[in-house]
């Protein structure tokens, strides 16, 4: 009596009332649960249709191959060999699985990194795109079309272009003929300069300096701006900008500060008037047009923005192919210079943003200052041991008309008469003089006053230097009698 499903002797046999076929009970119950019919027929079958069969316990017959000790030992050996082979295969499969898992984890990590990089580039592109100014140009302007997009440069509005031309013509005519004031410092006065005051600043890690008459504005990386009185030798007021300050400009009662967050903040009489969120990254330079109406800012996002400070709005932009590391207006205002990490110094037209000339410094141009004669500008890289003087009227290697060594360069400032060039660094302060009659340079002063920023005081009779590491401001003046 064999089960119709398994073909073996059932341990708990049951018989179908409908067909009389014998089944193993557990097998037929599972089959009924899944199919609801009797095996081999289309008739429905319920557990109630099964009748148990009462039989005596029948021992399973021993396989004919296991009737002796040698056959049993051989069976055990075969089983052992199978177990060993299976264990070996299992270890090999585990090894392959581990390798596949490691490779999958590596690919997942690489994918996450790529996604993060692409997301960052997308955000930067979106931010840069948000700064592009859309304006009709050419025929589209006349037809009122909206498809033209000025993505390279946005020129100054017509009224400001007229202002730039007016200032240029006025200063170009008068700059060469103006004599030095009678009260201006002589070479003997400069040679006699020595530290007369050193004051601890409120701001920590001061990095920027802007001088207006008898006061100086010092910006720090802690986001604070100290207003320092040169005559009283004290900090009169501290303003909290809230972001690390990287550039400062002061004109009349207006102070402008650039930050590492890409913002330019306008302060009028000490009160915050406007915050321009123009740059996608650190502001590397601020420069004021000699007409006093236009401010320019540069950043690591390869852009230069122009602001109308009377109306407090962005009016023009220049997009470059490289990071801008330094910025300076020409003393006539019709040109603006931009330094780059590659060592190129690009000169742009202020009105249109078109490239007018390019000079090669050889190292990253971090400091650029124009001479008041309008022909020269001095350039250097921070931490570099030389300063180069370029002539705007020349091109190529001939444009570098003079180069003199220094121990270190952090900041430079040219006086109003274009005679004295002050150079500040980590090893001290140097003043070089250009003698027009002999067309030669000479060193007037070398002092140990450290400076990360420097500027001339009234009538060039004082020098103000800021030491970023020590957090102090020093004044070099005439020795007391």
Automatic annotation (TrEMBL):
For this record, the Gene Ontology CC terms, alphabetical, are: cytoplasm; Prp19 complex; U2-type catalytic step 1 spliceosome
Molecular-function annotations in GO: peptidyl-prolyl cis-trans isomerase activity; ubiquitin protein ligase activity
- Origin, by domain of life? Eukaryota
Claim: Thylakoid is one of the keywords in the record: no
* Every U-box domain range: 1-83
| Chain positions of WD repeats | 276-317
Biological processes annotated in GO: DNA repair; mRNA splicing, via spliceosome; protein K63-linked ubiquitination
- E.C. designation(s): 2.3.2.27
- Pathway membership: Protein modification; protein ubiquitination
Catalytic activities: S-ubiquitinyl-[E2 ubiquitin-conjugating enzyme]-L-cysteine + [acceptor protein]-L-lysine = [E2 ubiquitin-conjugating enzyme]-L-cysteine + N(6)-ubiquitinyl-[acceptor protein]-L-lysine
Record has Isomerase as a keyword: yes
Any idea where this protein resides? Nucleus
- InterPro entries hit by this protein: Apc4-like_WD40_dom, Prp19, Prp19_cc, RING-Ubox_PRP19, Ubox_domain, WD40/YVTN_repeat-like_dom_sf, WD40_repeat_dom_sf, WD40_rpt
What CDD domains does the record tag this protein with?
A: RING-Ubox_PRP19 (cd16656)
Q: What are the entry keywords?
A: DNA damage, DNA repair, Isomerase, mRNA processing, mRNA splicing, Nucleus, Repeat, Rotamase, Spliceosome, Transferase, Ubl conjugation pathway, WD repeat
Quaternary structure note: Homotetramer.
In the record, the note on similarity to other proteins reads:
Belongs to the WD repeat PRP19 family.
Record's function text: Ubiquitin-protein ligase which is mainly involved pre-mRNA splicing and DNA repair. Required for pre-mRNA splicing as component of the spliceosome.
UniProt-recorded name of the protein:
Pre-mRNA-processing factor 19
């Amino acid at each position: 009596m064999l089960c119709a499903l398994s073909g073996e002797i059932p341990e708990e046999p049951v018989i179908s009332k409908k067909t009389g076929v014998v089944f193993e009970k557990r097998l037929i119950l599972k089959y009924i649960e899944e199919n609801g019919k009797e095996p081999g027929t289309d008739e429905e079958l319920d557990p109630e249709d099964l009748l148990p069969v009462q039989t005596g316990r029948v021992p399973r017959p021993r396989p004919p191959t296991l009737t002796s000790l040698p056959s049993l030992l051989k069976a055990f050996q075969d089983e052992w060999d199978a177990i060993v082979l299976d264990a070996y295969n299992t270890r090999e499969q585990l090894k392959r699985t581990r390798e596949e898992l490691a490779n999958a984890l590596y690919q997942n990590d690489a994918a996450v990194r790529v996604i993060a990089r692409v997301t960052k580039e997308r955000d930067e592109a979106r931010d840069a795109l948000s700064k592009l100014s859309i304006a009709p140009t050419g025929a589209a302007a006349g037809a009122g079309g909206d498809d033209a997009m000025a993505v390279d440069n946005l020129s100054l509005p017509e009224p400001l272009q007229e202002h730039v031309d007016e200032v240029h013509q006025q200063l170009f005519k008068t700059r060469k003929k103006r004599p030095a004031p009678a009260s201006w410092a002589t070479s003997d006065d400069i040679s006699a300069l020595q530290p007369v005051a050193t004051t601890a600043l409120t701001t920590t890690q001061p990095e920027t300096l802007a001088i207006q008459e008898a006061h100086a504005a010092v910006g720090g990386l802690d986001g604070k701006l100290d207003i320092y009185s040169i005559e009283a030798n004290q900090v009169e007021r501290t303003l909290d900008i809230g972001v690390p300050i990287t550039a400062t400009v002061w004109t009349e009662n207006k102070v402008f500060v650039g930050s590492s967050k890409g913002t330019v903040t306008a302060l009028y009489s000490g009160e915050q008037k406007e915050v321009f969120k123009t740059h996608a990254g650190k502001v590397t330079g601020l420069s004021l047009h000699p007409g006093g109406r236009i401010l320019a800012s540069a950043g690591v996002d390869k852009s230069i923005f122009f602001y109308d400070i009377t109306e407090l709005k962005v009016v023009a932009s220049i997009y470059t192919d490289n990071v801008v590391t330094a910025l300076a207006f020409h003393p006539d205002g019709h040109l603006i210079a931009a330094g780059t990490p590659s060592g190129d110094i690009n000169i742009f037209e202020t009105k249109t943003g078109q490239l007018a000339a390019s000079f090669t410094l050889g190292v990253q141009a971090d400091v650029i200052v124009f001479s008041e004669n309008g022909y020269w500008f001095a350039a250097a890289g921070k931490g570099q041991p030389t300063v180069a003087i370029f002539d705007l009227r020349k091109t190529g290697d001939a444009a570098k008309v003079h180069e003199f060594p220094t121990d270190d360069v952090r900041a430079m400032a040219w006086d109003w008469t274009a005679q004295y060039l002050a150079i500040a660094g980590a090893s001290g302060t140097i003043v070089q003089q250009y003698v027009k009659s002999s067309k030669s340079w000479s060193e007037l002063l070398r002092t140990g006053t450290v400076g990360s920023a420097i500027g001339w005081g009234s009538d060039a009779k004082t020098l103000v230097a800021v030491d970023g590491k020590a957090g102090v401001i020093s004044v070099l003046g005439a020795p007391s009698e």
